[in-house]
Amino acid sequence: MAEPEGQGGPAVLDPRGVLRQGRAFLDLFWDIAKPEQEVRLAATENLLRHLREGRKDDELKYTLKRLVEGLGATREAARPGFSLALAQVLQAFEEIPMCSVLEQIKEKHNLEKVKKKFVRNAAFGNFFGVMALFQSGRLVKDQKALLESIQLLQQLAHHQAHLRDLPRKTLIDIMSEVPETVFEEVLFGILQSDLASALTSPENLHLLLVGIQKFPSVLKPKNLKKLFGSSTVVNEKNIPRLVELLRSAAKSEKKDKKLPSVVFDLLQVSLKEGAFELFWEEGVENGLLKEKSGPVSYMCYRLLGSALPFLSLDQLQMILKGKVMQHYGEHVVTSQLPDRFKFAPEMEGYIDEFLSSCDDPERQLAVLIGFSTLTNQGYPVLSSSTRVVKHLQPVALQKYVDWLKDMFLRPDLDCCLDFSSNRQKKNQEKVNKAQYKIARLRKWIIHRLANIIESPVKKEESLVMDVSRFCFFHAFFEAKKKTSQICEANVLPSEPLDEQAHSVTENYFFALLQTLNTLTVLGDTPKAAALREKHIHGVTADGKLWIFLLVEYANKLLSSEHIRAVKPFTKGQRDAWDRTLQSVKNLQKEENKSDSAKVVAFQQLLLLMAIHLFKNPSETMDVLSDLLNCTERAFSKEHKKKKTGNAEPGWVEVMVEILLSLLAQPSLLIRRISKSMFVRICPNLNKRGLQLILDVLDPYQEENEESAVVVLEESGKKIKSAQDMDEKGSEDSSDEGDTEEENDSGDEEENEEVDDDFRSQLMNVLQAGNAVGGDESDEELDDEAMMALDKNISALFAEQQKRIQAKKDEKDRMRKEKILRRDFKIKVLDLVEVFLTKQSENPLVFDVIEPLLRVIEQCMSSDSDKQEVDFLQKTANIFKNSLCRSKQYCKRVDTLQEDLHAFVERLVKKACKHTDSSVALYYFSASLYLLKVLKGNMSDKSSAPTPLLEKQSSTIPQASQLLSTGCLDMERVTVIYQQALTQFLTKRNSALTSSMFQDLFSRFPIMCKPLVGTLVKSVTAGARQHQQAQACLLLQKVLLLRELKLFVTEEEWEELIRESISQVTESLKMAGKCVLKAEKEKVAKSLELLNFLLKTVTEQKLHVNLMELDKVLVALNQPEGIGKSARLDALYWNVMRWLNYTKPKKEKTANKPVQDAEPLKRKKKGFLPETKKRKNRKKGIQENGVAPVASEDGEPAAPEEQPPGTETPKQKKGLVPGSGKHKNRNRGIRENGVAMMESGEEAVNGADAVAGKKKKKKKMNLNRKRKGDAGNEAEQVPSAKKTKGNISQETQQKQGKANQQKQGKAKKKRKENKAPVLQE
Question: Compositional bias of type Acidic residues: which residue ranges (predicted)?
Fold first, then answer.
């Protein structure tokens, strides 16, 4: 292949030679300039493939020419696209000399010859050209091209206004890829001036630092001293200048939010030269940090995080106790405000990266302890829940835990890098600062220990137990003196724990207990792996519960003489403790004999209550005593043989009461264990136990309880019911955003009733002080009397204020109680959901239906605050998903048939009587659920299903199941739903909806045959037109069900179709003129039903007389019939086609121009060229040798009337008036593929209007092209009536004629001219 010669190669002799080969090759260059990166990459690949396959010199030359030109493109996305393509071409075709391409780039983008406004494009062209050469990978091999490229980059470095520091960065990248010999022979000479001026700019310094690291033998200390006078870069002499350069680099790259490369390289060079301590102390701490600016500070923080992997242990300890760390801590504390930049997540990323890459446990431990000892008044700034510990080596993790425990027992504040913010310094109180810091430090440590167990770090069981015992011991126990028998008592705290410290430790311990309950099995043994596969949590590798091990440890502590509990047990509490341990041991013996899951659930609950004895002994005693009794009765063999009387509650009922009481606890662990416990006792749940749960949800029982609570007002001695207070409290909760003034005004309104009493008391005080009387009363009061009067008045107002405050407090208390009650009910709903999910086949499920419906009904009519809405949504979801849509249901209802049928009747009647359709829907859905249960159960008395024909059994799958009625009493159920359907179709305001009955028919096709007669009659017997329309809709849905044919014979089916057609015919006879919406709806539904019926008659060849229907439908096609509705017209002709009628086509004729109308004169403005006049513009229509088809009035035919294929290019593009692209053409005329037909007179008028609009549009397009030029004396013709589609066109026409006519005159002329007129 011939090589392109210098300066772009010889000129292409046949410039169109490439073009003749096709557009595909040229389009590739357009795609390379697209902004989408995927398109650019695909175009580059296709270009390379094309060039490899073609191997043509002219194409390659043309490619180089186009790519070099594109390097200086104006669009930013095009420049890197052409640069990448050029690099790929140079890489693929190594025979192309690099120097020739570089010369071509210089010539095309000559910075000296280019105009001033194109200097930016030329600079970028040169830059991206060098980038292309470098990315091709061949630049380093060609020394001449490399030398010229470096010189070009040095020249481009002066254009900082456009390129900024891009040339310098590219120069550094090239230098980092160059071999040492090439650097020494080629580049060192031309870069010597830049290297010598390293301390003048950050870019030159970066160049030197990269050279020192990359070419140490070339830039050795001897050569460095020759360059800029010192053998090292980091020394005391250069520190001030280095600080200035680093500050400049920080401010120039502050938007990037990353460490500047020059700073990182300077760190590397300082480590290499052994001057890191000098660089850090003098350059960073005493230099950079003195300038209190954000970019410089963040650069120091990033330098600290980036330096961690490269430092030794001593260097790590030095920087972690330095000023940068303290400065970072102050930033973390002061950046807690929401709108401030927070660097803590970025620093945590640096720590995470260091710990994951470091294999030295000592260095890992040093970094983690260093950040843990950076404290703000004793509290470390490192998050106590950070997950960086997951990368610690096991040895480092164990040492870190030991260090935390030692710091908890013997806090060493001297080893901490402690600081206080300016605000904290100002607000310092006279308290014991050391105790305050120790308390804050211990709080962080105990949380850190608990979080280590929760974090996904690899840990041993011994470590988990060690931390758990430590937290448990210091939460509930204290050591009297040292003892070696207990590890936690080996060391006594240097500062005793106070009550607050025990309370904090106690809270974190229960959080740790929750983690232990969900902890996966630890260890690598086969038994542990087997337990993990079974998804068993909360146990050790031996299968023991973690909580059981803690209880054993607690029992050991209680038996020790050297340990005392923070809250010592009484004799009764200790007996309960011992009894609990004995019961747990008995359960462990029963674990292999009975249900192990149930045994484990009882164990967990017993052990948890036992541990809660240390927290709330008095409150836990009653629950623990009842729980122990339930456990004994649940697993006692003698008790199972006895039948409990009605007076004594069973163990299940007592257990339910216990679980309900535990659900009210704020502990998440208790609630979770209670829920898991309820799952285990669900199979044993009886009706009384379930009723205890449902009583909590009963809204009427809640109202009765609330009505017993009264509030006694001291002033008026009046009693207000708590229900009223609750209503007011709910109003307050829904209006939380109100201002204090609004609340005060509300209080004033509430206290209006006591104003009279207060006013009378005030008058009595004034009269007693002679302040109210005759005109001389003021003169008779001396100073002592005035003082006494003021004292009495102030006492009276203070008493009144107390009464008002008492009312507010009572109101707030009632509101909070309501919130707590509602929250408790939401938790109890979890138990109901568990029962419905786990025991869906239990007959007790039927007892849940009505309580849930009452809750939904009550919530629908109550307040709409967020908590109430959440409660309603959760109840509704449980009712729909866990109950009505459950695939499993009770299979044993033989004894409950009568009750369930009565239940269905009761639910349907309530749905009919209800006024809210949304609530009625839930009642109706519940009745359908009971239908499913009754139909799905097989009764012994029920008759066998009717045998099916072979054709039916093969057509309808599971047809025998559809025909089976199960336990369903069809006669009784038919009466129930027939009454509901009759009410829906005859009652004016019914809560039932058509979707309810559609659901009934689709889910239970067996109900279609008994109810279809009611639907057929209601087509004409409906109370209103809306009901008649709904009857047509439901009848059509029923007839469309293919399962219906299983229940009717062919004769019955034919009679049903015949009767339906007869009813629809009578309905259409009664139809008047379709003006109202209800009338249109009725006719539309009737026509839709009729369309299906006639289709069925035609396809199945049924014998039905359609003469009467024919007459009715023909009469319906009158102006007083369906009217001008496009939808009705479409439906009408859809029906008529089954009777062999076709819709007549409308004749589109335009009005002839009115000769009597006076032309509207237009004022001449300028000269109109001949080519723009109308007579010449019409010639453009006759393209491709086809003349326009003329209409009756001699005008060119409308686009609809032109033969296909005769559109001109201008018509296709929409440039000629009357072109085929009318977006609003025939809007509303076509629907469902049927055109609308009107009477003859209306058709003529419509055609006239259409012709007038087309002429109007021609006129508007002509005026657009004139752009204000006059010369044509054609008059402006207003159209008759404006449709919606012409409104925007008319607006544009007004704007185009703003300089020709005033809007007022145009409106006046439009009113005067109602017929479209067109005169040439």
Answer: 732-755
Amino acid making up residue 273: E
The candidate with the shortest Cα–Cα distance to 7, out of 139, 70, 99, is: 99
994, 1030 contact by CB (below 8 A): yes
* Percent of the chain residues past pLDDT 90, beyond the cut: 20
Cα 67 from Cα 62, distance rounded (Å): 9
Phi first, then psi: give them for residue 420, nearest 5 degrees: -135, 140
8 A C-beta contact, residue 1046 and residue 952: yes
Q: How far apart are CA 35 and CA 74, in angstroms?
A: 12
Q: Average pLDDT, stretch 365-382? A: 93
Radius of gyration of the chain (CA): 46
The structure tokens 């829940």 sit at 385
Which residue in 783, 868, 775, 787 sits closest to 826, CA to CA? 868
Scanning the structure block, which residue is given the tokens 């033998």?
217
Distances (CA, A) of 189 to 133, 150, 193, 1028: 21, 11, 8, 100
Tokens of 500: 């607050």
| Dihedral over alpha carbons 1014, 1018, 1020, 1024 (to 10 degrees) | 170
Q: Which amino acid is at 162?
A: H
Helix 970-986 × helix 1025-1040 angle, to 10°: 140
Q: Is the dihedral of CA 1279, 1283, 1285, 1291 positive or negative?
A: positive
Token code pair at residue 1186? 């086809």
Q: Is 898 exposed, middle or buried (0-12, 13-18, 19+ CB in 10 A)?
A: exposed
Q: Is 720 helix (H, G, I), strand (E, B) or coil?
A: strand
Return the pLDDT at 595.
65
What does the chain come to in residues?
Answer: 1320
Cα distance between residue 234 and residue 279, in whole Å: 7
Ranked by mean pLDDT, the top range of 306-315, 867-876, 1007-1016 is 306-315
Instruction: Give the mean pLDDT of 634-645.
Output: 56
CA angle 895, 899, 904 (to 5 degrees): 130
CB atoms within 10 A of CB 136: 21
Q: Are 906 and 983 in contact (CB under 8 A)?
A: no
Tell me the angle at which helices 783-838 and 866-877 cross, rounded to the nearest 10 degrees: 10
Nearest to 81 by CA among 91, 95, 92, 66: 66
Cα separation, 1246 vs 41, whole angstroms: 56
- Among residues 324, 441, 292, 319, which one has the least CA distance to residue 376? 441
Return the closest-CA partner of residue 367 out of 332, 406, 318, 440. Answer: 318
286-to-277, 281, 690, 1211 alpha-carbon distances in Å: 12, 6, 74, 79
Buried b (16+ CB within 10 A) or exposed e, 993-1013: bbebbeebbeebbbbbbbbbe
| 1060 close to 1039: Cβ distance less than 8 angstroms | yes
Q: What are the percentages of helix, strand and coil residues in the chain, rounded to 5?
A: 65, 0, 30
Q: Report the DSSP beta bridge partners of residue 380.
A: 375
Query: Mapping DSSP to helix (H, G, I), strand (E, B) and coil, where does residue 731 land?
Result: helix
> Each residue of 393-433: pLDDT tens digit?
999 999 999 999 999 999 998 999 988 887 777 776 655 58
> Following DSSP, what letter does each residue of 54-80 receive, concatenated?
H--HHHHHHHHHHHHHHTT-SSTTHHH
Q: Average of pLDDT values for 32-43?
A: 88
Question: What 3-state class would DSSP assign to 621?
Answer: helix
Measured in degrees and rounded to the nearest 5, phi and psi for residue 1156 equal -80, -15
